[in-house]
């Protein structure tokens, strides 16, 4: 039996890669671990937490929280804007909000809920990164 975390991560990756994230005409890569040579824009999928919950005696129940981070980058002298992160955010929401993921190993779920989105930025000598965080909540169950 696979862990609920692994099953959810694989399903999220499958759905997001199939959705064909793009910015303009350029593909936007999805990573679970960002390679050292990655160039923005890209999306990072992180698992935040999974906790067992109570439910019917016939099933095991979990609540899982994952975070997607959209990262875009601008040169210090360039005009910085939210537009690219918002464009990618719209695609992520269309691909996931209210969707039932294709789970394996007899796991079942309620639809994905987008619990929160928020913005941040990071500065260094050469660039400004604009980030958009998307928190996803999922309720999963499996017959005992």
TrEMBL record:
Gene3D superfamilies: 3.30.2000.30. Pfam families: Tail_completion_gp17 (PF11367). It comes from the Bacteria. This is DUF3168 domain-containing protein.
